[in-house]
Structures
1.
Amino acid sequence: MTDFWLDFPGIPEDLSHVQKAVQEALGYDHALIQNALGDLFEGDGKLLRPGLLLIASRFGKRDEKKTIALAAALEMLHVATLIHDDIVDDSPLRRGLPAVHSRYGKKDAVLMGDFLLSRCFILTASYTSPANATLLAKAISVICAMEIEQDLDRFTASPSIRRYLRKIMGKTAVLFSLACHAGSSEAKVPLRTSERLRRAGYDLGMAFQIIDDILDYESTESLVRKPVGNDLKAGLATLPLLCALRNDDGKLAEMVNPTNFRHADVPILINTVIERNGIQDARTYAHRYTNRALAEIAALPPGTPRELMHLLATRLLDRTY
Amino acid sequence: MTDFWLDFPGIPEDLSHVQKAVQEALGYDHALIQNALGDLFEGDGKLLRPGLLLIASRFGKRDEKKTIALAAALEMLHVATLIHDDIVDDSPLRRGLPAVHSRYGKKDAVLMGDFLLSRCFILTASYTSPANATLLAKAISVICAMEIEQDLDRFTASPSIRRYLRKIMGKTAVLFSLACHAGSSEAKVPLRTSERLRRAGYDLGMAFQIIDDILDYESTESLVRKPVGNDLKAGLATLPLLCALRNDDGKLAEMVNPTNFRHADVPILINTVIERNGIQDARTYAHRYTNRALAEIAALPPGTPRELMHLLATRLLDRTY
């Protein structure tokens, strides 16, 4: 776990229980798999989704064991979707390290993702309410359905900001929103507050993913880490580029045309995106979502949990890592 | 649905409800996916696993709605594993038709499998007991874990009958056994009977898969349908070949050496397997498992459900399709 949560009282302790719960849920019968997957939960992940779930649960009366199990299940679900996403997008790296399919082959990566999903469902079926078990399963089906539909649509739709926003909704906002919804409903938070948390989670997720995509353009490391060329070829342009294209005189469009694109052009591309205000405009989007989240948070019942939600929202927007 | 179940009183009616439950569980929000996946449940599938579950539930007092939901979830789980298996094994065909990944690409096939799994869990979380929801999730994790472990092991282990039996245990026997276990426990069948059914299901699954692999050698159609060469290259030799290799003077071993193997040799290979008693010996294995199943079935409480189990066991052994 990183230092991200250090000044959130109680959260680092809870998260270390979540990490233990994940290790237990992976089971000790399968040492090889336990090793292969265990790494994924011990790296520099920020455990944002379980952290958010834990904060949301504090708005009510939580049952500690159930809440920790639910947070662990959510992180497992998240990692399972990452493993399958990296296969699907053919991304060789994840957080700067080889993706699971790069290390173990696509075959085992598909199976390891399935294994994780099934372990996640064992956890929810065993510890949480059937309603929350259903919520988690529904989140997966929404995430998959959105990806499939966008994909089946790929020959007709051109990359656009709307398409991008839909994609990150399915990828990130659904899980952030689920974290708030599941955490608060397991703790029997009144519906009005729970719904407000759910909406705040959604907006935070959108802002978070946009910032993530901006950081990819800003960090020089990203030149090495991110297969930008592949993203473009697969029509996976992110918001900074899409914003820059709106301010373009045709030069950038020419440059990113998949048939012309060469990986060696990435540094020039990034400069052009910055020149065309791509990053600045993308930041405006992130601010808008954060402000919407902050408005929801301001209307939550006052107290420490609300302060933590506020702190999280501003921290996610201001982060540089 | 095929005519397979025609003389099992009540089962065809139940199975048509199962098919409806599957369609409902796929949801109507996602027309594209509904279409793509709906096909898979309407083909010439025998619905063996849900059929077995329905018979097992008749040993107790079943709640119709729950039992139908559970049977539907089991079939969805089965189809999800088939979709992912075909990606993993690079099989272009499934039941003589293009596999999902051949039709929609690997990317959407991974996602469609995940979508199906999640829909399966929504169904179990909503309708069945948490114990049965857990059973289904555990079955997936066992299936995946066994495949992964065999795969991580592939550089050390040579193809062998023991390895083959382990593989089909993970692939087929686990689900047959689960069908009996889940169906009977949802219907509150006493533990002793339920355990007996579970063991019978396991043995039936083993026999079924062996027969399936024998039929692949016997049917001339299989020359077209099955990518035998790929199977051999991936170390996926099935029982007839493995038995024949035991009676071999070296000629067959030479022929199936992956570096020598040419697809055009398939007809000669099949003849050699038959000459070396591969099919006959494999049938002996299938008989042994069927006999074990029949012994368990004979010890079940008498009545129509037991007769149906007996009929199913003999029919699975004698089938030629």
2.
Amino acid sequence: MESLTGYKEKPCAASDVVFRMFCSQHKGYTVYASERILEPDDPTFAEMLRGRKVLLVTTPTVARLYGSLVNDLAERQSLSVKTLILPCRENMKSLELVGDICSAALACELDRKGLLVALGGGVCSDLVTLAASLIRRGINYIRVPTTLIGQVDAGVGIKGAINFGGKKSFLGAFYPPEAVLIDPTFLQTLPVAHLRYGMAEIIKIALICDAELFSLVADHSARLLRSGFQDPFACSRRVLTLAAARMLEELQANPYEDQSYKRLVDLGHTFSPAIEAASSYAFHHGEAVAIDLAMSATISAELGLLAEAERETIIAALIAAGLPIFTELVSEQLCLKALRDIALHRAGSMNLVIPVGIGRAIFLEHEDELPLAVLRRSLKRLAQESREMENAESAFCAYG
Amino acid sequence: MESLTGYKEKPCAASDVVFRMFCSQHKGYTVYASERILEPDDPTFAEMLRGRKVLLVTTPTVARLYGSLVNDLAERQSLSVKTLILPCRENMKSLELVGDICSAALACELDRKGLLVALGGGVCSDLVTLAASLIRRGINYIRVPTTLIGQVDAGVGIKGAINFGGKKSFLGAFYPPEAVLIDPTFLQTLPVAHLRYGMAEIIKIALICDAELFSLVADHSARLLRSGFQDPFACSRRVLTLAAARMLEELQANPYEDQSYKRLVDLGHTFSPAIEAASSYAFHHGEAVAIDLAMSATISAELGLLAEAERETIIAALIAAGLPIFTELVSEQLCLKALRDIALHRAGSMNLVIPVGIGRAIFLEHEDELPLAVLRRSLKRLAQESREMENAESAFCAYG
């Protein structure tokens, strides 16, 4: 695979360094992109596991699709790999499942040099991150995200969280992995809906800081979605490595979230938690983010900070990716409550991120920077556009 | 209280800075010594809690002795403090009890600026450290150790651990507190046996790096033990602050134990885990450490590295503190197995710490530096001395 982000180094054959993350004085890790890491003769993944006791945690779906490849790889390369299959659903993200991983680690006698591997989506990664942080006061682990969101968004970062006592993400840890391996061929088997959710996060990061990435996604989303993100090939790989690298650049400045409550990657993440909750989580996170992006762009345009043509481009990109731009659940009340709630998490400031160009975003720090009339006009406009689209049997459901 | 370690700074009235610990780029904390922090008019503790939601975790014994003082302080100073009483016994150090703290934190709506307080011994501190590291991906906590070991040894550090699946300390975290408050008046109510266990750790740290501390303990241990560590007053306070400061100096270089497996504070901690286990934990950790110290000193003397007179001084100090210097459980086999086991935890090296003077210690890195004949002579000698002591109804049980 050619290097798409300009890095030349080849620590493992056929793999590219996407990013080197530095989290603190002693901890850092590398994110690699590599094709077909489960092929029995591919050295990339195998070399990371060689000579270590490994507990690989995965999901029933991934085990069904890739379990035999994992077993073949372990056998062919004489690796010591035990596999634990966990029901990695959002509502199962519990301390009990973390305990299950710890029990399995104890049963296969993982020592301080042992290794956990998270082969799956966000929930699998969350559980493994937390278990790795606890076992023997912290052992190494590797993230191998198999979803698009996992490969381009939080999955390449250092956070893990579980739900507790009915409270989402109440317990967790900031705990850097030893490495992240992005293998785009996993996306071939990902349901198209999940590809769309990932697209929302890619559009988010592109809007913040990368116009080239935005164009790639906007121009090719239909083919990417139809092909399980394999076609056009060069575009697919460049989108993935750019998106992951840009996300990591943004995280780099504040990996433990103790330096600032102004994070550009919060674009699309101010109204979306309220939308998810209001839908009783019928809306997926990625869909809620898409609606939030449409709102943020519209607010920016209504404030005169984003050119109308650029707003149109953003809305068109969301629609082309098969993402929603509005829902009737989004009321003025919901928005105001979301802004108040989010301020509690951002040390009292609203810090609403809005795009002011393709690849450039700013903060609206305080409530008075967002007049109620602007919010009302923005909601009305999106509701109108959304209705028109539905009437025209729009692209909303084109890939359903 | 006069400053005993030369620090002048007074961040809180009537409290002294014992040590400032730096754990990583962003994290650090201060260890304070302060008298009677639960007095309703004392500002030290109260100022740390003011304006924050606080969950104080403590033990049934500490609650019985000091619960009303905590309540009076909270009321008099208008503090928001909820108390959780947990059965903090070694065999209860479980993920379930950590979960109990998290549930209580959720019930009293601790936010990201909320605070946990560990008011108790090592087990309480372990549980709170782990809960604080998990809640909302890490909230602040304060350690208020009420035992001598807690005030001079690991209790002033950053580690927490729980037992899991029958395995001691299998899960845990390195997670720095916001502050440590050492209040020597808590020791007035500590059983004398627990004072002795703390003495073993003080003698350990003194042997590594502080001849003055060693003399203070060796000369005054009887009075210190009889008085609940209150008399001689100046000696008591100097012993406590010196011991804590020296321990922290040693931890400072390698707080996350990822820099080196050669730690001088492992003096007394090579044979002792095997002794504790062989006694089915009838021997307390502090007693096992004392026996290990006697063995290490004797091995050093037999190797010609420690003067015989200094060895006598060390053995006498242990005896004066009412600590054992030998047990029939210590066989040649036990010692050899302990050395092999410990090498697994020290990256393959034995790294046996032995004193070569009062306040100076070195490592025996490899097995061939400890000839079997030397080990045998050392064990024989201690067995003989121990028998003579028992026959003479020695000081072994003087404070029993």
